[in-house]
Structures are given as C-alpha cells and as structure tokens.
C-alpha cells in the first residue's frame, strides 16, 4: 500500500517572466482532509489547475498511487477518480440536477443516441442520498436550487466517477453557519469512506472542524507542511503573510461623524423589503448584518437602482432622488461593490484599465471620444495607490488573484470619486493580508468623508469595522446598535426571526 494517494515533486510554473510555482512538494494521504493555505496569489489555484489538467507544469512530476500522473485535458481527471468543486460553480442552470451530475457521461439506452433518463435519475438519487441530500430531486432544474444545494450537486458530480481525491476551493464562502455544518458532516463521511480531500479556504475557523494536515504556500514557494491543531492559527497566518499579523482589524482613526448624506424613508420592494428607514453619514462605516435571506443585498440593490422600489424615498443631502437605474445612482455619487465580484462586478475578459475606468468614462470623454491617455494615467494611479499586484493596466482582470480583483472594483469607485460606497461582502474569498488592506482602505475612505456601507456575514468583521450597525431579518431592519453596544449575541438576537407560538 502506497503511503500517499497523491504526491507532487518539484512542481514549477512560470507565466512569461513571473515564476508562480517554485519547486512545490505536496503529499496527500488517503482518507485525510489536507488544507492548502496561502494568500491570494500564493500559487494555490495554479497548482490545482496543474493537478486537474488545465495547465501543464514547466518542471517536476506528479505521482498518483505511486505512478506518474499525466493529465492533458480536464475531462481525464474522472478516469483517475479526481474531482474538483470550484468556488464559482460549473453548473448549467437550465439543466436538471441529474443532467448536471452526469453531463457528458450520461447512461444510454440500448438504442444508441438516446439517454436513459430513468437510470440517470436513479443514479443521481443514489449519489444525493450518499451525501444525505435526498431532499434534492434529480429532476429539479439547478436554477431553482439554493447556493448550498448547488454545492452539494457539485460534490455529487465529482463523486459520480468513483472519486478518490476531491479538491474543494473555498467551499464555505457563500454558506450560512447551518449550511457549513451540513457540508462538514458530508466531508467527514467522505473522509471516513477513504476519500482524500484537498481543502482550500481563507476561513481559519473552518480548520478546527475537519482538517488533519496543512500546507502553506507563499509567493509560489512551499513554506511549511505539518499536522494541524488549533493552537497553530497565529503561526499559520504569519507563515502565509511573511510577517506577524498582530491585529485582524486596523485601529480606527478618530471617528467624527459628519453631515447626513443618505436617508432612506419607508422603502419597500415587493415581497422583499418592508418599511426600511435609516440614515447614513459622512465619514461613517455603517455595518449591515443579518442572516442569509434577510434582505441585505436586496437593500443595497434598491439603493443602487438595480431593484424596483414599490414605495418610499431615497434622499441624498436632504434632497429626494428618483434612482431608477444604476446609471442614476452613479450620477448621484453612489458606488456599489457587488457580493459576487466575478458574476456581477467585473468584466473578467477586459483589462484592468477597462474595469477601473468603466464607471467614469464620461469624465474621460470629449465630443464622444475617450481620451485614452487620461484613462491610462488614472488606471495606473489607482493600481499604485491600492497596491494591485499586476504587470500593468493592460493585464486581463481574470488573471488576477481574488484579493487583487476586489481592489480593482474598489479602484473603479475611487476613480469615480463616489461619496456613498456600498460594499457587499467586501472580503469574501480573499486572504487575511488582503482583508487587512481592504479594511485600511475603508478607514481611509471614511477619513476622507466617504459614507461607507458594509454588508457582511462575518460578525467579527461587522463588530471590528463598524461605527454603527443595522441588523436585518425578514426584509426589515430589526435593530440598530452603536459601536459600544456591539457583540455577537445582541446582533444574533435581532437577526433571528421571532419565535411563534405554533413553532412549539
């Protein structure tokens, strides 16, 4: 019996003159959960792309069950029992659960060319039952599933080819606490059945629940590999960032609340938001907390003109504004960083220059022509100011790490000089060092008089960064807490729906 299911020896990879992996040795045992940690840009994604045949290494070798592994196309990973669940799901929303699980490998009827739907659904149901997800119907369209359910479909898809090695990339990024625990139960069952799991996450709290060993990468180099225990968190963070990180949140400069910039009165959105009322001020970081489905994102979208308001008012500087589209919101000085930066925030196939200037082209245009030299100068300025790791403003945005992509969106609204900036899950899926830099930028913006509204599912982030917090539940604001009143218990009391008599 081989000690390792998967072993990489001296894996190296460069893009142009940039070396992104430098002699990486990774060892994965059967039936273990092995965490792969590192900042955005450390090389984790590149290494996973090499393991799954998306990229070819420049040097080194991969052994799988003691034999050389040569994957030339991502489809070949199924032949070896390797599966991967990406942070951005690869599901087709208009196909059923069963069709997604077996796409390209559907069982056929004896008459060639026809899919055996009965067998397809039966085998999909068996896989879902193995994951304790019998409530998900194989015939249901993926578009109707929750994020957590879609993730289970992705795992079922990976397991459908007798998976022995499962790679999970930020699997808890978009899940609620109860959904995370369900996922952890699934991981424990897979581990008990002998499946090895490579677990990539920036949430240090995940590690205690499921991880056996941990490997840290930094700047494309292997920093450490060891058995995991909960006392190692500070050391692991230090290894990831290359220095001690004594504080999770930067100290807040003296906060002086300025004049009211935004007021929302009696705002309603059909079946989603009900009688929303609040104020926000210059120089304030206003946190918005709540459980998934509380209406936080819908509120942000309504203020930004992306949701139709059925009644109520939005006032800026005391003047009522009719914000019926994002263009009108932008014209009124409102910027919005969406929850899903890749789906709704960025033009991934465009350059940094295009993304940074996207909301400000009217300021760089004359007589219908864009002044390219001004766009280039502005993009370069914000790449430097925000310390975006890129070869230049002409680099494609899709090639950046998650933390640097988030900075590109911030740069867009800084370039626009937005006075009210709404940040929806601003640090989701980025590493501890990039988070700290985002927090520092938020403080800088508030110090310059910008009104910062931050939506976050991370209660420590809400508490550590907010001057005031609004708590939402069921589409309503159920509580308001000042910085001195903030603690997790109080926030959760306001965030939980009231107990009804019929619940007993």
Report the CATH architecture of the largest domain: 3-Layer(aba) Sandwich
- The best one-word shape is globular
The computed structural class is alpha/beta
Give the helix proportion (percent range): 25-40%
CATH level-four homologous superfamily name of the largest domain: P-loop containing nucleotide triphosphate hydrolases
According to CATH, what is the topology of the largest domain? Rossmann fold
Question: How would you concisely characterize the structure shown here?
Answer:
This protein has 504 residues and is an alpha/beta fold.
Describe the structure.
There is one protein chain. Helices cover 31% and strands 25% of the residues. The protein is an alpha/beta fold. It has three domains: 6-241, Rossmann fold (3-Layer(aba) Sandwich); 257-333 and 418-495, P-loop containing nucleotide triphosphate hydrolases (Rossmann fold), CATH 3.40.50.300; 344-417, no CATH class. The strands form five sheets. A six-stranded mixed sheet has the order 6-7-8-3-9-10, covered by helices on one side. A hairpin with a 2-residue loop joins strand 21 (468-473) and strand 22 (476-482). The longest helix has 16 residues, at 177-192. It is globular, with a radius of gyration of 24 Å. The termini are far apart.
List keywords for this structure.
alpha/beta; single chain; 31% helix; six-stranded mixed β-sheet; globular; disordered C terminus; Rossmann fold; 504 residues; 22 strands; 3 domains
